[in-house]
Each structure stands twice: as C-alpha cells, then as structure tokens.
Specification:
The complex is a heterodimer. Chain A contains no helices and 11 strands. By secondary structure, chain A is mainly β. In chain A, the strands form 2 sheets. In chain A, strands 2, 4, 5, 6, 9, 10 and 11 form a 7-stranded mixed β-sheet that branches. In chain A, strands 1-3-8-7 form a 4-stranded antiparallel β-sheet, with no helix packed on it. In chain B, strands 2, 4, 5, 9, 10 and 11 form a 6-stranded mixed β-sheet that branches. Chain B is globular and about 45 Å long. Chain B is mainly β. The mean pLDDT of chain B is 93. Chain B has strands at residues 4-7, 10-14, 19-25, 30-38, 44-51, 56-59, 62-67, 72-77, 86-94, 101-102, 106-111. Chain B is 0% helix and 59% strand. The chains are: A mainly beta, B mainly beta.
Chain lengths: 116, 112
C-alpha cells in the first residue's frame, strides 16, 4: 500500500482565497483524521470520520473550515476564506479499528500551508 | 480534560548514550498510549503502541513502558545513533472517544 496520500504538499496563497487540501486514506481503514500542527499549539485534532461520517468536529476552529468525506477513499479539508493565522502543516491520518479505542494511526506527509 | 506533557522539550546527547524520554497524562482512563517519531518536514511514524492492560512494548532498540495508575510512560532508546535524531511524541487514546491526545514532543539530537 502507498500509505496515506496528501495533496498538495505545499500551498502558498493570499489571504481571502479558498484553499482545499486533499487526502486519500489507506484502503480498508475505517477512520480518517485531520490534524493541524503549529509551533505554538503543537498537533491539534480538527475533525475525524468513521466510515465516511463526521463524528467529532469540535476541533474545527471556525466556520471558515469545513471537511467532507464523500467516499471511503477521499476526503477534503477546505478553508474559505483563508487567513494568515491558518498557516500551518495539515496532516491527514487513517486507522483501522481493533477492539476498544483507536488502533495505530498512519499519517500522511502533510500539507504545508502558507497564507500571505 | 486530558492533558499530555512531555519532558524534556529538547535533548542533545552524544552517540551511544542510552536515553529516557518521559510522557505524563492527567487522566488514567485510556485505551492505549502510542509513541510516534517525526522527522523534520515529514509526517508522524508510529513506533510503539501499548494497550492499557500492558506494561511495556519493545521494538529493536526501543522500549516503552506504561504505568497507567500514575499517568506515566517512558520511551527508552538504547545505544542512541545520529539517525535517531527527530521529535518524539506520545499520544493517549481516552475512554469513550476515538481521538488521540498528543503531547508537545521531545526534540532529540544525537551527535556523532
């Protein structure tokens, strides 16, 4: 398996523009997670899906952020309009479920977003 | 609210030393604890997962222990090498949730 795939790897945009980040999870994994990593706040969970259904979006910072998972092999995280404080590395991760709790999570390489 | 803390925040050691990285968490109601490695500009790689019923896990030169009642885990790295240089993060999976709560990480540098 190719692992979790994210695109683009780098994105530079101007304030006010719409940004769409993409993720392809590992085939067969039931869970998909979107994280944001910054120096100040570390790694934060934004939202996660189970079987394509959003379960917890309490980490989504504002209404400017939205995420979808139209099928088991694709998810998007959209920011509209983008702001400079959204600059961060955004990670997607997937995980199978095994017994109680979350099993091992597999992370993608991340998308480094810079909003000017 | 579950909080995860890692000490030290940064560590620089000469090659060959045995290392201990610490992770503490405030709520012992967890399913498991994981240790990850993150290289600069890269994603996270899972190193070890310890279920709440386990005391430790080993993989090569790495050994992770878990003391759930005291809210502590340690990652032991034997005979450190320059290739071990990275940021190490621990994360817990609390009961009644499918989330992982991450610590802020320990940045390790092993110099020749």
């Amino acid at each position: 398996d190719a692992g979790v795939i994210q695109s683009p790897r780098h994105e530079v945009t101007e304030m006010g523009q719409e940004v769409t980040l993409r993720c392809k999870p590992i085939s067969g994994h039931d869970y998909l997670f979107w994280y944001r990593q910054t120096m100040m706040r570390g790694l934060e969970l934004l939202i996660y899906f189970n079987n394509n259904v959003p379960i917890d979006d309490s980490g989504m910072p504002e209404d400017r952020f939205s995420a979808k998972m139209p099928n088991a092999s694709f998810s998007t995280l959209k920011i509209q309009p983008s702001e400079p404080r959204d600059s961060a590395v955004y990670f997607c991760a997937s995980s199978p479920r095994s017994g109680g709790g979350i099993n091992e999570q597999f992370f993608g390489p991340g998308t480094r977003l810079t909003v000017l | 609210k579950q909080e995860v803390t890692q000490i030290p925040a940064a560590l620089s050691v000469p090659e060959g030393e045995n290392l201990v990285l610490n992770c503490s968490f405030t709520d012992s109601a967890i399913y498991n604890l994981q240790w990850f490695r993150q290289d600069p500009g890269k994603g996270l790689t899972s190193l070890l997962l310890i279920q709440s019923s386990q005391r430790e896990q080993t993989s090569g030169r790495l050994n992770a222990s878990l003391d759930k009642s005291s809210g502590r885990s340690t990652l032991y790295i034997a005979a450190s090498q320059p290739g071990d240089s990275a940021t190490y993060l621990c994360a817990v999976s609390p009961y009644n949730t499918d989330k992982l709560i991450f610590g802020t990480g320990t940045r390790l540098q092993v110099f020749p």
